[in-house]
Predict the structure.
Amino acid sequence: MEENDKIYCPKCGAEMSKEARYCMACGTLNYEHEANKNMRKFVPKNLRNTYQIGSGQFMVRNSQNQVSQSLSTRTGNKTLAFCLSYFLYLASLAIAFLVIMKGNYEFDAIVSSKFPLVALVLSILFFYLYAFELLFMKCNKEWWKALIPIYHLLEFSDIAFHKRWPGILLLVPILGQILFLVMLYQVGSKFNYSGLLISLFFPIGIPVVAFGVQPYEGYFFLGRLGEKELEREYRLKKIFLYTFFLFFFSGLGCMAYSFFLENGEKALSAKNYYYLYVAKQLSLKVEKEMKKENFTCNEAYSETKGTYYFIFDDVRTMILDPFSSLTDPIEGYVKVENTSHGSTYFVSIRDNNFGIPETDGKLLSLKVVEEKVTLPVLSGNLCTFSS
């Protein structure tokens, strides 16, 4: 196949002839083929001038109504860039957690410690480091150049102006700040974004460019072709973003909650909220299992009358509890009262320090007692769930 006759599938990136009606690898139609042009009317209007990657994400085409895929060996190993940034991020969080908490993993201790702030700072740091790595790779530059002090300014200048020397001026007070905004304007324009918005709101604009789907000057610089490379890169970005948002907002939430504890007169502790969750989930679990009739009682069961008890040595085995490894066993019971008007659920739980006296399972009047709650000796119609 002549070089001029070569194109790449807009969905999977496989090499194909521009005379081919469809991609032999994934079956995507070549809408530029004369026989397929009439098929474009079946594509939604807002997507007719777009480029689609395998994940289903759409990319706006450039002014020439085409997107070029260019094989590049200059960006470095993109998987290595992701793994290094991602696992260093997680390792830093883990080390900070162990050093700060020093074996005290109680909820109140975590919330009131310095770890939420450290998690917030580490999340922001690694988020922008990876964002600049992505930005450099999208511009056909080695990702590790974004990590080298001063030198990365020269490379960033090359991205914006195709000249390196202006980058050194970024170190000059005042002039450097103005030049940085001009560079951001240029970079935003080269990615077909609003340069003004990218420069004015650069804390958001830089990640938008880095994690976005717009090509640099109409080119995607890929490490490989024909292997759904764009889709693969998109998945890696999603993994990093999901992890970042998880720790960022968790840290932010813990800091806000800690402030609320210090300044709110009626604030409950984090441990109390955990007990509210356990009690509510236990009540819902019992109600769900009873509707399945997945239980047996030591006396006859009636749907219209009677009181029935479900007793648990450790209620955490009945519910989804992501913190079970950090907490003590919790014992308790659910009481079910059946009448002709329906069923009412009551719940009570406790461990060695906290407890909830028997109360409505809907938690309309739930109160956590910060002392050991004595569970009554239950007798009567005792029930158990079938295994």
